[in-house]
Amino acid sequence: MGLRRRERSRRRFASGWSSALETAELRFLLLLLEHVLGRGLRSAADLLHFFPPGVIGRVVGGVPRLRVAVLAVVAGLTEEKAASMGPEETARLLETAFAEGDATPDLLLQLLTPADCVRHLDGPNLWRFASDHGAWRRIGGGDLALRRIVASLLVAAVDEHLIRHEDVVERIGATRLALWVPPDQIAHLLQAALARGDTCRRVAAAEVASAVSLAALARAAPPRALFGRVIVPLLDLRMIGSLPRRSPHPGR
């Protein structure tokens, strides 16, 4: 990726949607969730398998702004009445609304933004939901659209210092690099290796990273493989260990 394009990517990633979140892990999770839900890779109903209505009701019941917004729509409560509800009462009302057909997963996610989910739902569980590429649906635009999504995630993870470019190269490995990297860049690597003469020094991942850009990898690699076999394994332990664990609020 050229310096100008990379700088534009950094500015987009560092401003707007990410600026209110404190850590790189939270910002990356938000970007991933926006792609996964916004592009239809996973549905609102899928999210409710991970966070049932009662769990979400207890969570929003502890956040006055969300409690009022949700209960006004799904239960028809006035702002004053909704403000008086506790987490357990909110959970029961939301469960009843779903049972009676007054609420649907899509309606709930019109009231809760991805940023709300990242700020208030359990972080590790939300990461598991969003990163489960095996459950991703096919989307309009096919592989080209998915390639752009995965490319933006790869650049974001590196720009936020969650992973390094050379980590990506090491994780891909020599065999997949030979299959994925464009021939002209393979030739460049071979030329650099031959230029060292008889030193027989192993080519370091950092050298490969300097010769093979993230943009080239993202363009050449199968997007599901790049995400599932490279990005997720590199991030998984860090995301699960660093994201906030949040239990639903107990009743008052």
Notes on the protein architecture:
The protein is an all-alpha fold and 252 residues long. Helices cover 70% and strands 0% of the residues. Helix 3 packs across helix 8 (105-111). The protein starts with a helix and ends in a 10-residue tail after the last helix. 33% of the residues are buried.
Key terms for this structure?
252 residues; mainly alpha; elongated; disordered N terminus
Would you report the number of β strands?
0
Shape: elongated
**Multimer state:** single chain
Largest sheet: none
Number of helices: 16
SSE arrangement:
Elements: H1 3-14, H2 24-38, H3 44-50, H4 53-61, H5 64-74, H6 79-83, H7 87-99, H8 105-111, H9 114-120, H10 123-131, H11 142-159, H12 165-180, H13 183-195, H14 205-211, H15 214-220, H16 223-242
Helix pairs in contact: 1-11, 2-9, 2-10, 2-11, 3-8, 4-7, 10-16, 11-15, 11-16, 12-14, 12-16
